[in-house]
Amino acid sequence: MNDAATTVEPDVLIRLSGITKTYGNGPAAFQALRGIDLSVREGEFVAIMGPSGSGKSTAMNILGCLDTPTSGEYVFDGVHVEHLSRDQRALLRRNYLGFVFQGFNLLARTTAQENVELPLLYRGENTEARHRIGMEALRSVGLAEWAHHTSSELSGGQQQRVAIARAIVTNPKVLLADEPTGNLDSKRGHEIMELLVSMNRDHGITILMVTHEHDIAAYAKRIVHFVDGQIAHDNENGGAP
Amino acid sequence: MMGWTTLLLALREIRRNLMRSFLTVLGIVIGVAAVVTMVTLGNGATQSVSDQISSLGSNLLMLRPGQRMGPGSSSGAPNFKAEDAEAIKTQVGSLKAVAPTVSRTSVVVVGTKNWATSITGSNSDYFTSGNWTLEDGRYFSATEERAGKAVCVIGATVRKELFESHSPVGDTLRIKQFSCEVIGVLAAKGQSAMGRDQDDTVVMPLRTVQRRLTGKQDVTTILISMQDGASTEQVTNQLTVLMRERRKLSDNEEDNFSIRDTKEIAQTLSGAIGTMTALLGAVAAVSLLVGGIGIMNIMLVSVTERTREIGIRLAIGAMEKEVLMQFLTEAVVLSAFGGLVGLLLAAIACYGLASMLSLPFLFSPSINLLAFGFSAAIGVIFGYVPARRAAQLDPIEALRHE
Fold first, then answer.
1. CB pairs under 8 A between A and B
2. How many domains does chain B have?
3. Do B396 and A109 touch (CB under 8 A)?
4. Region B36-46: what's the mean pLDDT?
5. What is the pLDDT of residues A190-199, one digit of tens each?
């Protein structure tokens, strides 16, 4: 990618500067983000917290290249995302990003294996490679023996594990998790968090996670608080509880 | 993403919703089956008509009184006499046979059985001009013709209806008050172009019918068979001149007779059947169009229903054109599959109907290919709108969709 931007701080992967996002226009306009500056280095585990309406989800959509900012700069690994087209952003997501959602978002009536292989399909991997890499990812979340079960046959915790396997199957640089434990009881939630921590620690995947639960945020190394579309605090975290 | 992968995704999606997919393609199946069946049967009917026309006799002209086209003679114009046929035979060149005919419908009785059939009076040229062949016995002789003897040659249907399996030659049948000896049986010819059973006939010498059935010297139709290679135009001209002279028409009077070429009738008939086939095909094509709209309808519903799935695909990194291609491929695979099933159904229907309607089953590769191509094209045309809608969804909105 572009070398010029990476010369200043070699390990900065994500840099947001002066990001704003306004919905609508005229007097009805709503400013969800009012100037966000945020840098994330490779290998970080960042939790984004804040009350609802604070702009954390909007920021997450922009960070995940699903949405574009109204103004400001977003540099991802040296690339100015704000200038990319819809399809270019799709390719960026395909090659560098993985998503984990609160509602799991697995394909219905589809086996765990097929769900995990889906991103590989879009990457153009052949059948043999898809099976091999897909099974490897399922094994890493401990669900190898559930490969042929459809999503409705899996528990919530298992579905989220499949979703994590799907997110990491392409070996992304960044994993974006939006309330990954929101639909799980606390025991399953902590199991999912352990899994995310190990992904971050063992595979060096940078993780950005939105949550409103303090004990979940506590797993992250760094916690960013959003209030009214701005960053209120940005603190290093002592470590896992 | 390669085409193969897109196809795989589409097939997976179709398999996942088997029942809905089946209902979606039903319209296409019926549409394609209807179009192909109509056109195939229409072609069979055309073929059958031209076959029958050629069995009627090649190079055959029909001379009838009056100007009206179509069966029956028009009022006013006088009928012909046997002498007219004699005159034609001697004065017009390049002719093979000239048969003056008069027909009556009458009941024929043999023992306890009776059968209403068409009795035709003519000479032995009748068999030449009509391309008849004998199965049994003989035709009547010139002596029998002149004497107006009560002898007859019967068609295959009359034989089947009135006689047992034994040969009827030498037996007698009764028509009204007179008895008539059967001297020959004609080989079967089947239906005429008009759908009349040509074998349902009894042929006697002209004079016999005139004396015993009609009671008049009239001849209603003169069949004229030309030699091979004779010019229809030239013969028709000579005939016209001769008949105008014999019927004493002055220059300013119109012909009160008509000469029809059987080839011409065949062409008219084939043309009419062709028009009918086109019409039925067009109606069937409309049903194919309705089937296409059905596909669009289901695909649109499917896009709404699968909004979240599309959102997932987009988030994972599917490009707009990949989602478009996936949905388009689904539509095309569905409609093309429907087309194939339709062709299969049409083949079965054509086979069954052709034998029921006793038409030849002419498999036409072109109409099958055309219908299949059309069904696939319908998938593209009607699948495009839903596919584009899917591709242009906002991933954030789509993921939020319940």
1. 60
2. 2
3. no
4. 88
5. 999 999 999 9
